[in-house]
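Comment thread on ticket #2218

A.B. wrote:
> Attaching the input chain for the structure job we discussed in standup.
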Amino acid sequence: MAKRPANNFKSRTFKSKVLILCEGLTEKNYFNAMKEDLGLPKTIAVNIIDCKGDVTDVLKNAKKDGFEKIFVVFDHDNFPKRGDVFKLASQKNANIIFSSICFESWYLFHFKNSTKEFASEEVLEKELKKCVGMENYEKNDFKHYSILKDKLTIAKSNAESIRLSVIANNYGVEIFNLNPYTNVDELVLFLENQRT
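C.D. wrote:
> Ran it. Output below, let me know if you need it in another format.
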C-alpha cells in the first residue's frame, strides 16, 4: 500500500486577503507586475476604482467580500475633494497610499532625491523623461515596473526622506495638500513582506 503524503494543512500559513484599489491603470499595472515578480499569493487583489467619485460603496463591498486589509491608491492631480477621500478611507479603516502631484512622483524618486514641487502631471512627466530608461515614458505602460525594479531600494529611501522633509517643512499642512509627497514605499514594503 502506498504511503499517504503528509498533510501540511495544519502547518500551512494563510495570508490575509488584501485589496489594493488603484485610481488608474498605471498604478494597477505597476502593482500587478510587482505582485507577479515577488510571487505574491492570489489573496492579494489589485483593482481599479474611481477615487474621484464616491469610494464609500467600494469600501463597504470590499469589507463584505472578506478583505481584511485595504489600500486606496490615488493622486493629488489637483482634485479638489481629495480630503474627502482621506476622510472616507479613514472611516472605513483603509490605508491611504497618496502621491502628489501624481503616481509618477514615485517613479521619479527612483532617480532623484528632490523636494521640487510639480504643478501638474504633465510637468512631472517631462522631468521623468529626462531620466535614463524613461525617455519614452508613456502612461499605463505595463513595463514600468521591470524598468524601475533595480532601483527600488533607492526609490524607497528617497521617498521616505522626501516625505519626512516635506512634512517637517510644512508643519500643520494636511498630507493631501503637500507637494511633493508619496508613501508608495510603505505599500511596496508591505508587499515585499507578503512573499511566500
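A.B. wrote:
> Thanks. Noting for the ticket: The first strand starts at residue 18 and ends at 22.
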